[in-house]
């Protein structure tokens, strides 16, 4: 359900249909609430929205009524008429609309048009009229409302949205809707949305007893339950093992540091709003860490380094804390405390290209092991304001491009989109629903080596500045876990499943045999539990399926006598009787094969 190329989407009929549908919706809202104040209403991916300042909160009945009236307006054969208008006339036209007036005044002050684009003389604005509704707008729109298929339009929900994204400004009501060219497209999209809801990690982590959040104890902080904790251990163990095999060393660093550390790193200058308030320790300010990199640098500086030691590859599963506003917290996807799978590569200039290629290949290998094969790279290059010599930037960017090309990855370039301290590669994966998620970042840093005075002694006997690359592969364990939950809809591959086998004794007299089998499986490295409850067999099977356990082993008199198990899969398939030894071979093969569900 993706739009594809954003530029092509902006030029498409679908974009114009959605933009026009937003105006039809706003017209319907103003009929129902004549005192409403309108803000902005753009098309977005898969739909549109419009923000309103309304006299009361909307309920579902309001949404239904607005949608019904909106469709009537569409069928009224209304033309969309473009007009240019002088700012003074626009201010008079929108005299009772304070949000529009603010936009007009900003346009005049900035010397840009209403979409923020530079204008030599911002003396003309544009509006669109459709029936009795008029909006400050550049378009584009359809020519006539009949070009909108009313049967392919649906209002979805209402959410709160601060005016201009500022939490100090009024909270508006944002109505989301979607519009398509054909009713069949709408049905397909709504079916897709239902699947998104089914896979919502916030629901699944609760139902599968993996993770919880407790507002009363602190919002945005995850509590890992035993089942979730076991999955997390599996992920982290794999991560550590692969890093050790890949030539990395593991480090562990503190959770707090003196203000000097963050002043030197620049975080207090550039990132203070995302940091928690300092705590006084012995009369000095300490900050809880939002990043791990300054601590790795402190380890580097404990001794004089030689070119012979480089490259150094240091990795850490380091828990960091960042202040996120309550309104943006979203389950595991946006939290205030998370474990970043950090690594820093410190090397000489002549090592940088091979190291970048190495880390890119390593990242791709790890992501594919978790079931993500559709991967795209994004390259962000030098912005206007940047630290570090231009030749360093050029060398770094070229090394990134050559690494991407060597792996045959599709990539897009964000010209000038790099951080001030270095260019970067971002890797985006697509999940089972085709949604894109940014995971790996490979980020050059010309800033912190300079700020902290990092050096190494070169072959010539003189001190030189090393190159440093930040690399977060999964991004954070919490967010990555949430993505995994939604990608697999909770039915994880066998190797990741917190419970790989559920023993199901048919009657109480079969519990002892089930426990004996459980012991054999556990000795073989298989995660297994026995359901010794007094529920009936079918209820036990149903419960195991609800918990998405890959294998259910049913045992009764026949199995106990023959030393066998009756094997069922979570999708309902019955594999029949199997010896314990044969099942162990099957399960171990599935665990070894990371792709097997």
Q: What is the CATH superfamily label of the largest domain? A: Bira Bifunctional Protein, Domain 2
Provide mean pLDDT, rounded. 92
CATH topology of the largest domain: BirA Bifunctional Protein, domain 2
CATH architectural group of the largest domain: 2-Layer Sandwich
How does the major sheet shape up?
A: 8 strands, mixed
* Low-pLDDT sequence parts: 118-122
- Total DSSP E strands: 28
What's the N-to-C terminus distance?
Answer: 25 Å
Please state the CA-atom Rg, rounded to the nearest Å. Answer: 29 Å
Q: Work out the helicity level.
A: 25-40%
Number of helices: 19
Shape: globular
Quick tags:
597 residues, Threonyl-tRNA Synthetase, Chain A, domain 2, eight-stranded mixed sheet, 19 helices
What does this structure look like?
This protein folds into four domains: 6-195, Threonyl-trna Synthetase, Chain A, domain 2 (Threonyl-tRNA Synthetase, Chain A, domain 2, 2-Layer Sandwich), CATH 3.30.980.10; 211-253 and 292-488, Bira Bifunctional Protein, Domain 2 (BirA Bifunctional Protein, domain 2, 2-Layer Sandwich); 254-287, no CATH class; 501-592, 3-Layer(aba) Sandwich (Rossmann fold). Strand 27 and strand 28 form a beta hairpin. The model is unreliable at 118-122 (pLDDT under 50). It has an eight-stranded mixed β-sheet, with helices on one face. The chain is built from 19 helices and 28 strands. The chain is 36% helix and 24% strand. It is α+β, with helices and mostly antiparallel strands.
